[in-house]
Records
---
Amino acid sequence: MHYQITGKQIDIGAALQTHVETELSAMLEKYAGRPTDANVIFSKSGHEHVCEAVVHLSTGLNCTAKAKATEIYAAFEACAEKMDKQLRRYKRRLKDHHKERTTPVELMGASSYILAGTEDGADDTAEPDTLQPIIVAEMETKIPSLSVGEAVMQMELAGAPVLVFRNEKKDGVNVVYRRDDGNIGWIDP
């Protein structure tokens, strides 16, 4: 397994890197089975240390966790605890997912755009000069080909509010999202 442990504007010592590798290896061995790589990023936000971890599984699913604490080791421990809880919750489904899927999740390329929003304090009643939005950035993104259950699991593991995916059964683009009432919404055009 490949580990990438970095710090944003802070120095990460060898002892912390070794600690992160051993703790993540032990946790992932219990649940995931075949993780391919892990990215752990430490940063500082005010007086707190922030730890963000993303683990890529061989089937194409990702598990994401983020935590803050006043000490850097405590931030990692809280982040690892969140990831452990997510993986424990989905352990059976991950194992079933590994058995059913012999090949990695198929990814389809798509364009992703970031559009300029309205400025704070701008008059919302004024008509814009044009109805064409201003494109701030253009990127390439990947849309996974999943079942609805796998899409919900991926959204939960990634901690994302929404996930766009290609439905394996109907071969169309679908969306799952977290509703305000705590339930999951599914859009199937």
---
Amino acid sequence: MDRIELMHDWLHGQFPDGGWTVEPASADASFRRYFRVAADEGTHIVMDAPPEQEDCRPFIHVAQLFDAAGAHVPKIVAQDLQQGFLLLSDLGHTTYLQVLDEGSADALYRDAIDALIKIQLASRPDTLPPYDEALLQREMNLLPDWYINKHLQATLSDSQRETLQRTFALIALNNLSQPKVYVHRDYHSRNLMAASPNPGVLDFQDAVYGPITYDLASLFKDAYITWEEERVLDWCIRYWEQARKAGLPVNADFYEFYRDFEWMGVQRHIKVLGIFARLYHRDGKDGYLKDIPLVMAYLRKACERYIALTPLLRLLDELENRQAAAGYSF
């Protein structure tokens, strides 16, 4: 019996009176799929998470933590961990990405900042997995493993690999020195829903306990939409002022805080380039290739600003030359 048949059988048990319909809602970069169920009492979302590839328990745990913090997350209506199904409340059809424009951005991001601060204020150690050095390094290694080797079909020289590892160590050192809070890890326009209360927060199952600037970098250095730097600076100042007022452990010097924000973004962009390449080459998902140029632009911009990141910028220049010679273009 395939997953669709299993899901339908399970839904018959949840809605025994019948009269319900089901249609695809969305998919993400993992093996999870989502379906919208319309019944007499309204709509719900079914998460289909094949248990051999996905574990629903982290989603349930983080949903409880974020809900207790005051964030608007899906309610878990029913669960079947053995088969890998969750029935969730429906936060609607409209993502931030669909409605963000010059006129709506300030209000939407204001709400996103408010929700993020609520989540961060609820943070406690030893509740979520640590965003430790091993995880940071493993994520950054996605760049040579998948973006450079597989996507660009380039082989790093020994000196280039040493440059990369030295830079990764500097980035990890900065990231690990930051105060720690709950980290959503994908707090951006595709996972925030325009809802009431706003925003609805999705896709948080990979949450960890780590650097305080990470989710802010996800939000304002979004791989799917970009803004003028002056505007991002204003939003970062707004967050920083609110966070300080709320008692969060942000750096008292805004310049240092913004530097941490940018260096955290560098780690994320290194990781995301590797993930997008892996999604294409391993999983056959080519929809993320169009987002690579924006992520690379973020990375290069930050490397241009900080002397310690100049070796990485030079390496990227060398790789682009190799890319051009090989005939690749993105």
